[in-house]
Amino acid sequence: MAAVQTAQTPLIDWNTGLLDCFEDVSTCCYGFWCCPCLACTVSGRFGENTCLPLCDIITPAVFSACITMRASMRNRYGIKGSLCKDIATGCFCTWCSWCQMHRELKERKKGFTLRKYKKIYRYNK
Length: 125
Prior knowledge:
Blueprint: H1 25-33, H2 35-46, H3 55-58, H4 64-77, H5 83-92, H6 94-124
Helix pairs in contact: 1-2, 1-6, 2-6, 4-5, 5-6
């Protein structure tokens, strides 16, 4: 039998580091002063239920939304990491994790917008 090889895209790093708060001061302030609101914003922008992070307050499974969201984001965008790192980050650096995910989504939105305009420009030539 012949072995089937699949082409995988290489994994990439996060756009910013976990502790790179001063790369985007507005996100840092938003996370510091109202982390639950930032978490709901990230959840909504990622396409999940906006109130998903609020379930952590109600249920005894502390930090589950942060860990789940982080793992989902890594898998969707092909970002390096592991579930163990997601758990550690979600448990010990929750606010920084939400800020990093928010910065990631902001950067991806910028990239999408630029690609979109380049396509329009290319077709209008």
